[in-house]
User: What shape does this take?
Amino acid sequence: MGRKNSKKKKDIKAKPSRSSDRMLKGKLDVTRSGMGFVTVEGMDADIMVRPADFNTALHGDTVRVAIKEMRSAGRRMQGIVREVIQRKRTEFIGHLEMNKGFGFFVAEMDKPMPDIFIPVHNMNGAADRDRVVVRITEWEQNGKRPVGEVVSVLDAENSNDAAMKEILLENGFPLQFSDEALEVAARIPDTISAEEIKARKDIRDIFTITIDPADAKDFDDAISFRKLKNGNYELGVHIADVSHYLEPETPLDKEAYGKATSVYLPDRVNPMLPEHISNVLCSLRPNEDKLTFSAIFQISPKAEIKQYWLGKTVIHSDHRFTYEEVQAIIEEKAGLYAEEVLILNDLAQKFRKKRFNNGAINFSSQEVRFKLDEKGDPVGIMIKESKEAHQLVEEYMLLANRTVAENISKLKFNNKSLPFPYRTHDDPDEEKLVPFAAFAKKFGHKFDTSSPDKIAESFNQLLKDVHGKPEQHVLEQLGIRTMAKAKYTIENVGHYGLGFEHYCHFTSPIRRYPDVMVHRILFDVLTNKVQPDKKLEEKCKHCSERERAAMESERAANKYKQVQYMKNYLGDEFEGVISGVASFGFWVETVEHKCEGLVSINSLLEYDEFRHVESDYCLVGQRSGKKFRMGDKVWIKVVAANLTKRQLDYEWVVTAAVPEEQPVKEKAKRKK
Assistant: This one.
């Protein structure tokens, strides 16, 4: 089946030398009191840094720190920041305090930082007390005070816009590209030269389509299709050739690498690349010649790969489909290019079936989207489910990603594997798996943990068995939590969740920097110009960290929208499902809106004293024996909605008896 077992490495405890010249690299965490602590990978204790020793470092910065005082009985190790290696952020939201000829910017943060000096020529039209976005441009020579410029003045009436911008900034995503990066982008020619077309495989005459969400503008993948005389099909996966336009080490490339990913919030996209590149130059728009990097397969009607080709191409998309349009063709078996779409779907479903037979885990997922008005305020909830149209695109992207990784994995350079940014997913965490298996057993589901293969089989059987049952949601959510997190690394341990020995990201270079790195290495391989990158693992770690920051931004923005939406329902009661349990209370997700809030354990004290039983994912009443367990249905009342903290507070409604004769809507929601 091709699943690899990876050996867990023991953490090596780094021991700093006694020499104060020893430099250590780590991340600075500044507490609310202003004290700093540098966390160094591999060390079992952090290094305390006093504010006077920050040397221009701010919260979240990656720094080089020297040991000033070794750890001794009852005393922490102390250090001094010698160098700021990488800023987490250089832009901040706050307000201006004007003086004659200059101003000071005071950041709105829960972490202390110095005020930023703003010279009058850097005000950009801002006035006293304005709420603004400011970028640090330099530090005064003595390093005591940062100097900055006003990037934009925020609309006092639009709190949503400021909130979304702050979420991006606090996770280290700049709101704008620098003038230098935009200048590089502006110099890229819009036209494709005849010489460039001649150097590529020309497939403009082959039937090609794109399939994307209705509101998408950056079409970074296309699929071509034709029948062959031997009865097989030729299927091409064509990806926007971003690496052709994005030259290494330019200011534009450096900023794209710094972000490493586009960030998708409910009402906006913070793009990795400027719009002209992502939505025009590289977007595979219909009826336009476009430069692509392709994986072209010859496939039998039984979905067997007979051969493949990798290389640079030029394409011409015949039509732009939305997912909804393709789904309608699949369901009705009629419509524009119906024959081609139905064959593509049939092959995709065969690939999908083989993948699950070979050990891929079939976690279903629902995506919650907000309907927004013109101000960006949420006015409704939409549940987006994966249908065959989505699976059609997904299977061909997986096929291309896997094929590129397999191709590179065979190569050697100086008798060693060629460094390459694989996308890996390790085996499940044994510590999390044991209590999960015991919990699943309480619902009558057996779980074989004897090997990675058996674990995958058990997961798929369990997911099949629980479908439509009350425990489905809780077991799916807990199952996902037992999984390791996928990451980028040059250590190819395979992808457990997909059941692939080799996997990488090749298909989304407009929005993911690892895909750009993959394109560059693959092109070097195809043109025999391989020069291994000694810093590739460091780049992989950076991209993984940025991906996590983007996910955190998306979670925070969705939470903000949930709170914004539920403010309309203060005092109302809803049916919900317990989605998490902790010693301080339990979380409930409303059935109607999928909005999660916390029922504090303090709010339950009038009924009983509850203790947390971790192994059973529940709270248990000491006197009554009443249980609040993950997956249980409960009724709650919305009691608070704090936008600043992005927090919803619920209270448990003791009795939820609703007479059967009441309308269905009254069962879902009750107003006091």
